[in-house]
Amino acid sequence: MTETPVVHIVDDDDAMRHSLEWLLKPLGLEVKTYASAASFLSNHDRDRVACLVTDVRMPGMSGLELHEALAKAGSTMPVIVITGHGDVPMAVRAMRAGAIDFIEKPLNNQLLIERIHEALRLARARRDEAGQIAPIRARFSALTAREREVACLVAAGRQNKMIAHELGISLKTVEIHRHNAMDKMGATTGADLARMLTLAGAI
Amino acid sequence: MTETPVVHIVDDDDAMRHSLEWLLKPLGLEVKTYASAASFLSNHDRDRVACLVTDVRMPGMSGLELHEALAKAGSTMPVIVITGHGDVPMAVRAMRAGAIDFIEKPLNNQLLIERIHEALRLARARRDEAGQIAPIRARFSALTAREREVACLVAAGRQNKMIAHELGISLKTVEIHRHNAMDKMGATTGADLARMLTLAGAI
DNA sequence: GCAAGTTTAGGGGTTAACCCCTAAGCGCCT
DNA sequence: AGGCGCTTAGGGGTTAACCCCTAAACTTGC
Asked: How crowded is residue B170: how many other Cβ atoms within 10 Å of its Cβ?
C-alpha cells in the first residue's frame, strides 16, 4: 500500500551518482540517477512521491536553474542542493528558491540521509494535501459562472433568500443553482460545500 | 488608518545602527534600534507590523540564536540576517530557520530595502491572516467538549439526525449543542460554522 | 436554424433546521 | 447544602431547505 518513494539524483559526476546510489539503495529507497538537468526534466515520473538531490555546477543547466525550472513547471518536489564549490550568495539563492538544504561536499552522509527523509516526509504531506484539494478545485472549475457565484455565497454563510436578493434573482432560481452546484461538487449539505470551498481557497 | 510598519535593527555596532537608521527613515519607515538581542527581546512591541534586521556576530546572543528564540516565543516576525563574516553553513542555518534573506556586508542598500519591503509585505499578510483565524480559534476553544464535537460533525457536513445517531444522543440534544456552538462562534448558518472550523484547521 | 447547455421561474409537497418554552440528572465548588 | 454550568430530553410551532415536476428565454456552436 505504501509505495516506495523515489530519490532523484542529478549530477554530471559518474562517481558521485554511483556513490549516492550505493548510499541510499540499502535504505529501501528507490534511486534514479541523471547526468544532466535536461535528462531529469524530460525523463522523471511526476506522479511519484519523490525528492531531488542536485549538484549545482553542471554542463548546461545548473542545479539552481533546474530548481527554478522545476518550480516554474508547477512541481512541488522538495529539492536538496549539493555543491563542491559553494558560496554564500549561491546558498541563499538556493534556499530562497525553497531548497530543503544546501550541502557542501565532501558530503556528510548522515546529514544527507536525514535531509532526504525530511524531504520525503514533506513530499508525502504535499501529495496528501494535493490529493484532497485538487479534485475539489477540478469540480469547482466545472461549475457554471452562476453556480460558482451561488456556491460561494452559500459557503460564506448566506441563506438562499439573501443570495436571491444580492444577485437580484428569485429564491427558486437560487435553489436550482445551489442544488446543481452541490450535486456537481458532491456535497451533501451546505456545510459540506463550505468546507470544500474553504479548503480550495475559493472564499 | 494604515499604521506605520516598524523595522527593528539589532546590531552591536553603533555606526551600523545609525547608518541603517539614516537609510530607512527617509523611506517613511519607523526604525527602532537595539544594541543586543536581549534588549530587543525584552523591549520590542509585539503588536506592530514589523520586521527584524539582525547582525549575526554580537556579544551575548547571536543573531541566529535571536531568530530561533523569536520563533520559539511564537513570533512570526520576518527576519533578515546580515553579517560581516558569513559562511555557507551559517547562511543555510539562517535560511532553514525561515529568514527572508542572509546578506553579507558591505550591504547593498537597494537589495536590503527591497528585502525589507518584502518582509513587511509578509508581516502584513501574516497579521491579516492571524487577525481572521485567532478570534475563531479563541471562540472555538471556549466551546464545551460536547459542543466542539457536534460543531465538528456539522462542519464535516453531517445532518443533525446523523450526528445524534453517531453520538448516541437524541436529535433534540444535538439541536441544543449545535445552536449553542453556533451562537458562541457567531455563525449564522451551518455553512458559516464549517467555513470557520475549516479556516481554523479544526477539521 | 437547430441542438445543447445555461439561466431564469413557478407549483406543491416533504423534510430538516430553527426558536420558544420547561426540566431533570450530574459534577464541581464555595 | 445550595448554586452554577454542562448534558440530557421533550412539546410545539415557524421558517428554511430539499425534491419532484414543467417551461420559457437566452447563448453557444455545428
From this structure: 10
